[in-house]
Amino acid sequence: MAGRTCETPMPAEAKWAQIADGVRVEIKAGEVAPGDKLPSTSELCRQHDVSAIVDRQAINALKIEALVEGVSGIGVFVAER
After folding, report:
1. Cα(40)–Cα(10) distance, rounded to whole angstroms?
2. CATH code given to domain 34-81
3. CA–CA separation, 46 vs 69, rounded Å?
4. Which of 54, 64, 65 is nearest to 16 (CA)?
5. Consecutive H or E run containing 41
6. How confident is the model over 19-64, as pLDDT tens digits?
């Protein structure tokens, strides 16, 4: 079969990574400003049709990057730069 290439298919990006990417883009584009509160876990779960665990993974990835900060019992906010 001349001319045919064999490529390994790329795995689909994990849902939590897709959510984190979307929030990251909003932050970097200035659509959400430092100090703005992100939607609640239940709201993000409804928006993306995911479980709370998936949402927490996305938020934790953004916390590791210091893009957001959690305030226990209050919510998650965009971090100051």
Report:
1. 32
2. 1.10.10.10
3. 21
4. 54
5. helix 41-48
6. 999 999 999 999 999 999 999 999 999 999 999 999 999 999 999 9
